[in-house]
């Protein structure tokens, strides 16, 4: 489904979403380069942040390039294999975002509640293990959806009421075994969603409890400021996802659901690097240093 059938809006949508995509990729790549180039940022929190940036680039790359191509060619056709691939990749990287945000919440919990044991608990092996768990859980979630969809009759000339192969839309195309399908999907959704949200809520409950015991106001602000960027991203990610779910349940309009889906498929990955670069002094310092190195390289290359 197209976001708009108005022919006059097609060039505007093309430029708009191409700009969104380029800004998202560039912004997240700058975060990755800043973290990798500055040894001060070689910490667990920024390790997870750089992987979150990779995940955001991949997440938006599963939907927006195809949508831009559809607008350019005035074609909304996607192959059966392409649709399953898009759905699978969307679930993988969407779930990875959720799992990585949970790992980052655990990192902040250890840093504030157990500062003296932080380096021992959040050692490189634990960080690699948490990343591996995030990847494996995302792949399992994706493959469960794939196995359910592959049980359906082969789709031909079917219409999907969204601008990408939304998993919920694909599952609703089939009317057989609805009870079994709903049980499996709700179980998977509750398991992964409840695990991530409960982990984040518990971590911030302990963080806030620990911060309240700090006697000075400056100490409280300094401790909580280390969580500001992560908490903003969490609120943006889960706030838009929950809002889309509630909105799609309350509204019967496919157009409204598709527009709401833009929030977590396009807007959230685009805003994440801005949140971290504007609210985080370490990232801003690393970006300035990266810019300085780039200018020095350009001057030396131009002189040569």
- Count of the domains: 1
CATH top level is Mainly Alpha
CATH topology: Rhopdopsin 7-helix transmembrane proteins
Percent in strands:
under 5%
Helix content estimate: over 70%
Q: Low-confidence segments, ≥5 residues, pLDDT <50?
A: none
> Could you describe the largest sheet, including whether it forms a barrel?
none
Head-to-tail CA distance between termini: 53 Å
- The ordered H/E elements are HHHHHHHHHHHH
> What's the overall geometry?
globular
What is the H level of CATH, i.e. the homologous superfamily? Rhodopsin 7-helix transmembrane proteins
- CATH architectural group: Up-down Bundle
Instruction: List the total number of helices.
Output: 12
**Helix/strand/pairing class, anyone?**
mainly alpha
Q: Averaging pLDDT over every residue, what do you get?
A: 80
Strand count: 0
Radius of gyration: 21 Å
Q: Which oligomeric state applies?
A: single chain
What does this protein look like?
This protein has one domain (7-303): Rhodopsin 7-helix transmembrane proteins (Rhopdopsin 7-helix transmembrane proteins), CATH 1.20.1070.10. The termini are far apart. The chain is globular, with a radius of gyration of 21 Å. Helices cover 80% and strands 0% of the residues. With 304 residues, it is mainly α. The mean pLDDT is 80.
